[in-house]
Structures are given as structure tokens and as C-alpha cells.
Amino acid sequence: MNNDAILELLEKQFSLKPDSAKVLVVGLGKTGLSVAYYLRHLGIQFAIVDSRKKPPYNDELLAEMPDVAVFTGGFEPTVFAVATHIIVSPGVSMEEPMIQQAIAQGVQPLSDIDLFACSVTEPVVAITGSNGKSTVTTMLGQMVKAAGKKVAVGGNLGTPALDLLTEQAEIYILELSSFQLERTSQLNAVAATVLNVSPDHLDRYASLDEYAVEKQKVFRGNGVMLINADCPYAAKMLETAQAREQITFGLQKDADFGVITSTGGESLAFQGTEILPVNKLLVSGVHNQANALAALALGKVIGLPEAAMCHALRQYKGLKHRVEFIANIDGVNWINDSKATNVGACIAALEGFEQESVILIAGGDAKGADMSDLVPVLKEKVKALLLIGKDGVLIKQVIDGCIAVLEVATIKKAVKQAAKLAQSGDTVLLSPACASLDQFANYQERGSRYISEVKRLEK
Questions:
Q1: Given 30, 133, 217, 321, which residue is catalytic?
Q2: pTM for the full model?
Q3: Catalytic: 201?
Q4: What is the pLDDT at residue 240?
Q5: Is 80 exceeded by the pLDDT of residue 356?
Q6: Which one is catalytic: 201, 215, 321, 367?
Q7: CATH number belonging to domain 3-110
Q8: Domain 115-315 sits in which CATH superfamily?
Q9: Is 3 a catalytic residue?
């Protein structure tokens, strides 16, 4: 789509006129920087504000766009007062008083995903969920490549959505968080899914129901709805659909895409017809069977050949920091699942292991989540629990002595203690069930620290 057509659509949808609009971009992270580049490309006047004194991309922005006004170190009313439109980065809560005040006074909110949706003519697939969205997004991306099509993959995962537009893809695949969806109105994906809904980000949402409502916004438009029949919250979303095509996937209930058992073992299947034996998947665990079913369902909607999808699944090795095998030391497997930043992800990881064989390292920033859902799987799978981070005590409280618990505070101490406890045949699993920001920059840094400590044991 050319710039004139994009600007015409933005004016129609948001009354955003390039000759008079003054857009305020709130937050100078990766998303904010991508918005800045794109607004400059469209010739729209903008400024940037960030509550941090030195935002991470401040130097790059000033080097590339020295004439852009950048306000750091807080949110000043005078900065918001001149804006006609506001684009708030996902990392900034929409409940910030200055943002709420600006919107109440008539400033028009939109998002980077809105800009993307108004700029793209090729098919877009949208994927959200509390857990598994990065896996399904990358699985589907590899399927599209195996089918010989040019694909661009990003959004909440890796490359910001607006930066994908330079790739001239035939298909765009977006992983979207609830924070992105809550401020987006223009997305109309040809295929969209809510993989699951479990407690997460309850420091930003009043309840799990409110969180689910934001996830459901991925279904705006008229594309095909892909629903996880095993998830009550996701399955309930079927009830709101009117004259929409729907496809279901799931492990526990009858679904269009499911798992069947025959003389040869279990297989991924579509409406009872075998697609791929489960033992051909390189990634383990029933949660990855569900992820593969979701990717197959999305791939079917966008017309990918079954042979290409199966080829991609046979080659898919999984994501770094997501149930990632690190080493076997004296018969003990060490697994890095630092990407498990909520309770549901930790449960999914644990369910892939044998009974009472896991020494679990968990804890961090719980983000207001209820840890009690962990108890049944901890009793079944975990022989010892090592707690790190500021909210490890919350996990200890709900365990209430049902398994052995040690508070070790740091990753380094956790690995040393786990090495003392583990016996041949055991698995030491870092699956925190919490965010990492109390001790690390992100879950990647947490996982890398764990890997380096395990590698020291090998030496």
C-alpha cells in the first residue's frame, strides 16, 4: 500500500491528518522506536516521551532524527497537552493518570498494530495466549517457509510489527500480547487464535476475566477463529462469534485438530485422519502437541500444503529458553525453561516429565498471580523445590510443606544446591513461574545465567 492510501485510511479511522496531527509516542523501547521511524516515513509530526531518564534507544533516535522532540525523566502535562493523537507502547500501562487525562480531553489513542493494520494488504495471522504463542508463531513461520512462501514473523516476538513491513512478505505472522491487543482496533487477521488463558499480568489487570477480554480482541474482524477446546476461557469465546468460521484444536476434548490413537501409537490428526505421528516431533511434552495442532490449524486456513507443514514440524527444535536441554551431567538432565514467566507455563513444562523426578528452580516476580495452581503438579512431579527471587516466598506459602523446599535466593546457589540433591535419572528444571525483572533484565538473561552456571558444573 502506498503512503497516500495509508494516510487516507488513518484519516478515516483516526482523524489523523498529516498536515495538522501531532502524535505523542509514549515509551522509547523497541516498539516506540519502530513507531518513530514509521511516522517519519509517513511524514507525520511527532514527539516522544519516556518516564526513564535514559531510555534504551534514546541515542539511536537522536542520531537518526536529531530534530525530533524527546522528553525524558517523567510525564509532564504540558507535553501531553499539545498532542492530537497518542501511541502508547505496550510496556506502559494505559492506566497512567497522564494518559487517561489526555484521552479524556479528546486525544485520540491508537497503536503500532493499528498503524501496521492500516498499512498492509497481505494476509496477517494473529496469535495470542498466556503460553505457547512464541512456539506456535515460530512453528507456523517455518511451515510457511517450507511451503516456499516469503514470510515475516514478529510483533511481541522479536521484530516489531512496523519493522516487518520492509520485508515485502506474502504472509505476516504476528505474536500479540494482551498489552498490544488492548490498545488496538484495526487488526483484521485472516486467521487468529487465543491459544489459552491462564493467570498472568495480574499486576496490570484487575482479574483473569478482564485479562481474557483483552486477549479476545485478537478476534476483531471477520477472519477464521481458531479455538483451543481444552481451555474454558478460550472455548467460551466461541459463544460470542456470529457467522464466523471456527476451527477447534485440543487434546482433551473432541476437536477438529486433535490427537488420535491407533496401532502405531498417537498421531496428530484432522477430523480423525492422521497427519503426523507424535513421535516424529522433536519437541517433547503434551503442550507441544497442542502447539503443533494450533500451528497446523492456522496453516490450513492460509492454504499451506500438509506435506510442507509436516516437514516443518519434523525439523522444529523449539525455542531457546523454552524447555531447552542444556546438559546431562552424571545422569542428570539440566533443562532451561526460563521463558516460563507464569504459572501456566511452569505447569505445562512439568507435565512433560516423569513422576517425582524433577528438582525445580522457581521464583522471581509473580506479577500478582495466585501460585496455588502449582500445588497438584508439584506434588506429582517434583522431589525438591529451590526458590529464587523476591516472590519465592509466595510459592513456599502455598506449598505448605507438601514437598521439600529450600530458599536459595540466586541462580548460582540454586544450581549448586540442585547438583548436591540430584541423582542419576533426575531432571533439574529452571521453570520459574514468575517474571525475571526483580533480578534480571529479562528472561533471556536469567536463562543465560542458568546455562553458564550449569556449564561450570560440566567443567
A1: 133
A2: 0.82
A3: yes
A4: 65
A5: no
A6: 201
A7: 3.40.50.720
A8: Mur-like, catalytic domain (3.40.1190.10)
A9: no
